[in-house]
Write a structure and sequence with these properties.
Two copies of one chain form a homodimer. Chain A has 401 residues and is an alpha+beta fold. The first copy, chain A, contains eleven helices and 15 strands. In chain A, the strands form two sheets. In chain A, strands 1, 2, 3, 4, 5, 6, 7, 8 and 10 form a nine-stranded mixed β-sheet that branches. In chain A, strands 9-15-11-14-12-13 form a six-stranded mixed β-sheet, sandwiched between helices. In chain A, β6 and β7 form a beta hairpin. The longest helix of chain A has 23 residues. Chain A is globular, with a radius of gyration of 22 Å. Chains A and B meet through α8, α9 and α11 of A and α8, α9 and α11 of B.
Chain lengths: 401, 401
């Protein structure tokens, strides 16, 4: 059982402080966030699969691979420090080192992360001044400020926290995230930073995070493009003294709660996708294998034709079944059922005796669920995507001009 | 050596007649095409890989699989006869049978093809009346009319023909095609019908067609969606008496010419993609394998971010390298060079010392070549795509409403 904390964020977790400030990397908005834990934290992370990887991501991957504890996460927006070669890599190391020095911790205890324009060198004097200033500003309730400071083209901050009752006591999980599903240099990348005070050993933490990310952040799509800087980091300081053991009922409860707020963050990212006007939940049910249903869901989630049809509130089931058809998955199209929310649009054998006006009414809502029942097995999945609007084109065609 | 025929089309080929009429499947525009050969033709075809396949496509695949000769190709627009189950399949057989009867040929000598709205039954009385009327209207110069009759959301007809000098004489190749790269029920599908009077045995014809399609129609993208009805059919009546033998120099010359007009048709389809304002040629050079360069080119060609950047004339090389990075291909990003036409935008080690205004000027042209040099091998490929505009969203969000 878990319960949401009102206005919760990463600093809802005991022992976690944060700040978000304007350092000067962006013109006016906050652009530097710092998350600090007094207690050393176990850490797990998942990173972009893009072959092009930003310098701070490479630095942070090494920190996590070493398996030591961490005490801080430094995140800037406004500059991705990606495609910057050796100089960029050295800049990333310098900012990590400088932040560690100011905090009085080891260099390897600092995770760093960047999002923003790529292909431009980090203005190090601005970043250094920012670091100098931010270390004294972390507070017990600075999570929302930090959530604002990591945004780029996002319109709203994404922050959630829950209390989870486990067998030996209560723990808290809190996180902040940013979208909006797109890549640089439009200053958009998927980042999420999550903390908990549960006592979890690092291998188990990695296992729990991987499973959670696969069921949340890895099942969203704004435009099918991935970033050079995407990362999800989970830290735990163990201050609750509530231990979660591998294979226990507590592990299950903890994972459920972590997954819930991860899905909340993932959905918030999707809903705030560039130009998006609707959040679309895509359920693919009763396929032969998990891989099959995920492939079909992903293909539908990325289809410009499906996304424009939903934008236009057009009950265009042909585009949905055809996207499934080109996914490469083997299934019998004649068995497929499609629903919009609870309304059946397509029944097996291509029957589609629905009321067009009623379908348009369902699709006119701001949140819609499209269910595709393959009637061919027992594997199911849920993905989230957004509609595709003129605004997306406008934002992306005009950004740098 | 080959030379283009002015206003050429499929009827530029000796012995091939065609017509295009308004049967009533569409409101006003032509919607029924018939291509007829007095001499029986060897035939080869390639078909959509979409799991959802339209009834006429299934019927025509069987005709070609049987390996016999054909004498006619009947194509309607306005209704795709896809997702119509058994009734749709029987309708397809009936239209094939009716056309054969009217022409006085065997049922298996008629290829049929449809494009248009899916999920609706074919209005057979309209189609039958159309067939009745069109068989008497085929002429030696009806190719352009046929090209018009197969269009859906396309704006212009696509027709090309060439004369090819071979060792023992001259042959002609002519074709018609339609786009616009999108799927139903927006009435859009990729179709191409090509004829030649060269004398080519059917196994060689199949080999030549497969190779050609892989280098032309299979390397274009409008929105990454494929149709239930896509097909390319090549027929040859052999009336030139000029034989093309497997492995000969003539085979090479013939294939070159066929590939040239296939690329012309493919480019014309891309240029006429829904909402497109620019034709983008994507060259990926010096990769490790053919599969690598094709995967990278396809990922770039389908990236909404790359396509919107070109629309906005924004020299956004970061989106290009990042699309390559998420393609799943292993390469070294630091070695990559990117050019827009002849202008270097990115040199190895992420050097990008170009003039932004000059780059915008290049990107403002109606036809642009983006070259990505991986400097990592000797495999190369060329793809074609179009930009992504508000018009695409408008067309696809509002079509059925």
């Amino acid at each position: 059982m878990f319960t949401y904390i009102e206005n919760g964020s990463i600093t809802s977790v005991k022992g976690i402080k944060a700040a978000g400030i304007h350092a000067g990397l962006k013109r006016k908005r906050k652009d530097l966030a710092l998350i600090v834990s007094e207690q050393p934290c176990s850490v797990a992370g998942t990173f972009t699969l893009n072959k092009v990887q930003a310098a701070p991501l490479l630095v942070s991957k090494k920190v996590i691979a070493k398996g030591g504890k961490v005490k801080a996460i430094l995140v800037n927006s406004g500059n991705a420090n990606a495609c910057t070669g050796e100089r960029g890599y050295n800049d990333a190391l310098k900012s990590q080192k400088y932040c560690a020095k100011k905090l009085g911790v080891e260099q390897d205890e600092v995770i760093i992360s960047s999002t923003g324009v790529i292909g431009e060198y980090m203005p190090m004097h601005i970043l250094k001044n920012g670091i100098e200033s931010i270390v004294d500003q972390v507070t017990d309730d600075g999570g929302i400020k930090a959530a604002k400071a990591i945004l780029t083209t996002d319109l709203v901050e994404k922050a959630f926290a829950v209390n989870v009752k486990l067998s030996s006591g209560e723990v808290t999980i809190g996180g902040i995230a940013k979208g909006s599903g797109m890549i640089m240099p439009n200053m958009a990348t998927m980042l999420a930073f999550i903390a908990t005070d549960a006592d979890i050993e690092k291998d188990l933490l990695k296992k729990i995070l991987t499973k959670t990310v696969n069921n949340s952040f890895n099942k969203i799509s704004v435009d099918g493009d991935t970033s050079t800087n995407d990362m999800v980091v989970l830290i735990t300081n163990g201050v609750s003294k509530v231990k979660v053991e591998d294979g226990s009922e507590d592990e299950k409860l903890f994972t459920e709660a972590l997954q819930a707020i991860s899905i909340d963050m993932a959905k918030a990212i999707t809903k705030d996708g560039e130009g998006a006007s609707k959040l679309i939940t895509i359920e693919v049910k009763n396929g032969r294998t998990e891989s099959d249903v995920d492939t079909i869901a992903q293909t539908i989630a990325n289809s410009p034709l499906v996304k424009t049809a939903v934008y236009g509130s057009d009950a265009n089931w042909g585009r949905i079944i055809s996207a499934a058809g080109r996914s490469g998955v083997d299934f019998d199209p004649a068995k497929v059922e499609i629903k919009f929310d609870d309304m059946t649009i397509l029944a097996p054998n291509y029957c589609h005796e629905y009321d067009e006006e009623e379908a348009t009414a369902v699709l006119s809502k701001k949140e819609i669920t499209i269910s595709i029942n393959l009637n061919d097995g027992d594997a199911s999945t849920t993905w989230w995507t957004c509609d595709f609007t003129e605004k997306y084109i406008e934002i992306n065609a005009s950004y740098r001009s």
